[in-house]
Amino acid sequence: MALTKLEKRTRIRMRIRKKISGTAERPRLAVFRSNKQIYVQVVDDLKGVTLLAVSSKEKENAKTGIKKTEQAKIVGKSLAAKCKEKGIESVIFDRSGYKYHGRVKSLADAAREGGLKF
Questions:
Q1: In angstroms, rounded to a whole number, what is the distance separating the alpha carbons of residues 87 and 84?
Q2: 47-62 as b/e: b if 16+ CB within 10 A
Q3: What is the pLDDT of residues 68-109, one digit of tens each?
Q4: Is 69 helix (H, G, I), strand (E, B) or coil?
Q5: Residue 51 belongs to what H/E stretch?
Q6: Domains in the chain, please, with CATH?
């Protein structure tokens, strides 16, 4: 039988996660994309700790009447600013099985513009 969309994404996600892991010096930037929102976490996998999390549901990022790609740009800029405050300059990007286009790409580009290196 054919795999469902979720099963395909889960397989791709596991294939990616075998290869990448975040450390204290270079944490993993994990993206989750729902139908309406976008969430980002900066994770230290060695300690198993989320260092910082940003989403489009937060007050400063929640804007109504704008496109989801624009919303992702706002989240990316906010993420870069919060990372700079915490002293995080470089991360490993984990797209979590999503294709690198649309909201995921606009978030990554905005984070790079904000000063994150990956």
A1: 5
A2: eeeebbebbbeeeebe
A3: 999 999 999 999 999 999 999 999 999 999 999 999 999 999
A4: helix
A5: strand 49-55
A6: 5-113 (3.30.420.100)
The DSSP bridge partners found for residue 93 are 29
Q: What is the pTM of this model?
A: 0.90
Running DSSP on this structure, what letter comes out for residue 104? H
Distance CA 96, CA 34 (A): 12
One-letter amino acid at 114 equals G
Please check whether residue 88 is in contact with residue 113, taking contact to mean a CB–CB distance below 8 angstroms.
no
pLDDT of residue 2 exceeding 90:
no
The secondary structure of residue 25, as a DSSP letter, is S
How many other C-beta atoms lie within 10 A of the C-beta of residue 103?
A: 22
Collapse the DSSP code of 76 into the 3-class scheme (helix H, G, I; strand E, B; otherwise coil) and give the result.
helix
Instruction: Give the tokens for residue 41.
Output: 């976490």
